[in-house]
Design goal:
The protein is of the alpha/beta class and 375 residues long. The protein is built from 14 helices and nine strands. It has helices at residues 3-26, 33-36, 49-52, 57-66, 78-81, 91-103, 120-124, 128-145, 170-175, 179-190, 206-221, 242-253, 297-316, 359-374, and strands at residues 42-47, 69-72, 106-113, 152-157, 195-200, 228-231, 234-236, 258-267, 321-326. Strands 1-2-3-4-5-6-8-9 form an eight-stranded parallel beta barrel, surrounded by five helices. The structure holds ligand G3I. Ligand G3I binds next to loops.
Length: 375
């Protein structure tokens, strides 16, 4: 066989394979979230290493079909990207940048400054001066490397307590409460053309929101740039705080910044607290894992209604929202299968474990169709 013929056969085989995956996984007529909402806001997903490296063929097809933004679930966190004082592990993040370029997906860097998932060496730093050096080098090195390559950064993540006061993190203790402004100042100079965001969970709740607004005003008053605020959106079935979300959209956008929903998922299993503080855990018990073999239809429908109500609200305020990102591609890949109770079978997203759209997916699409008709 000639070389030309061989290449033609390979190309034919590859395209047949990719066609069958897309039809098996999704059906030809599955709508695309990014297309449906293209005039409203960007649609993102969190991505893990297997997905970034395209080792999961179904995810490799579904992600570019459905999403136009991605946030790395873990690989840009300090513990992974900056494991030793002088050692940076850029390889996984570089792969994500390449993946984004290839698939026309913009990347939201997550996250420069967070008290959690810090490398061991940083936890052990005692002097405030050395800690400041770590803080400065970390932001400068990473933000500079990815300047112009990531679209945006979650510059600081989860710096607030539930009552709106500053969390007593290692950053606060070593650097004082100006550390948030300083992080943005460094990021602004290292990545002048990158969008800079503050990101937190429960910051749609009134007390935490008030703290978040003060924090943003403080950054602005210092003459430092902040472009947006991320509301993570780890919510619970039947308890979506629509009124608080709406008030937050109005109040945050009055500060002249955009709002992003950055880590959206809806927990369907029982939990005795709200939020996403990863240091909180619950004891394992079979009663806490009631649906190991599938979610009953009644709950699928409730999940669909919750997502519909949320997206109706997002559409109403689309002028204030830049992006809605789901925290994971499908239910099987969600962090909520392992937290706060390990080994649960959870159902928080729009795609099921086989990458099939769930009733909630279709309800979200329907919400947009309804919005268009009522316009
Ligand atoms: O990489 C190690 C691996 O080497 C080790 O063998 C394994 C054993 O447990 O752990 C692996 O690390 C895990 C890591 O995810 C990567 O998979 C950690 O244990 C696990 O705790 C970590 O969880 C992540 C969590 O942040 C940690 O803080 C979740 O995947 C990630 O979804 C979650 O994301 C956060 C956002 O960044 C910020 N907002 C809250 C959100 C949910 O907690």
């Amino acid at each position: 066989m000639s070389n030309k013929l061989k290449s033609a056969v390979v190309i034919l085989c590859m395209s047949t394979l990719s066609f069958s995956f897309s039809t098996i996984a999704l059906g030809q007529k599955t709508p695309s979230l990014k297309e449906v909402f293209k005039n409203d806001f960007a649609i993102g997903t969190a991505m893990n290493t297997v997905q970034i490296e395209e080792r999961d063929p179904k995810a490799a097809i579904l992600i570019p079909q459905q999403f136009n933004m991605a946030t790395p679930e873990n690989i840009m966190k300090a513990e992974i990207i900056h494991p030793q004082w002088d050692t940076y592990n850029f390889e996984p993040a570089d792969k994500l940048i390449e993946y984004g370029k290839k698939n026309n997906i913009k990347i939201n860097g997550h996250t420069l400054i967070w008290h959690s998932q810090l490398p061991g060496f940083a936890r052990k730093i005692e002097s405030a001066d050395s800690f400041k050096l770590f803080f400065t080098n970390h932001i400068n090195t990473i933000a500079r490397r990815y300047s112009g390559k990531v679209f945006s950064w979650d510059v600081v993540n989860e710096a607030l307590n539930e009552d709106g006061t500053m969390r007593k993190s290692v950053f606060l203790q070593k650097l004082g409460d100006d550390f948030v402004t300083e992080a943005f100042r460094l990021a602004q100079s290292a990545a002048p053309n990158t969008q800079l965001y503050y990101n937190d969970y429960n910051n749609e709740q009134p007390a935490k929101r008030a703290g978040c607004i003060s924090l943003i005003k403080k950054i602005q008053a210092a003459g430092v740039r902040i472009d947006g605020v991320g509301i993570q959106g780890h919510w619970h079935l039947g308890k979506i705080p629509l009124k608080d979300i709406e008030e937050s959209l109005v109040q945050y956008s009055a500060l002249g910044i955009k709002v992003m929903f950055t880590e959206l998922d809806i927990e369907v299993l029982q939990r005795n607290f709200q939020g996403a503080d990863v240091s909180q855990r619950m004891n394992n018990a079979a009663s806490l894992n009631p649906y190991p073999n599938g979610l009953p239809d009644s709950l699928q429908q409730r999940l669909a209604s919750d997502y519909a109500a949320l997206f109706a609200l997002f559409l109403k305020h689309k002028d204030k929202i830049a992006r809605v990102t789901f925290w994971g591609v499908n239910d099987g890949q969600s962090w909520l299968n392992g937290w706060p109770v390990p080994g649960r079978t959870n159902y928080p997203l729009l795609f099921d474990r086989n990458f099939e759209p769930k009733p909630a997916f279709y309800k979200v699409i329907e919400t947009k169709e309804k919005f268009n008709k009522e316009k």
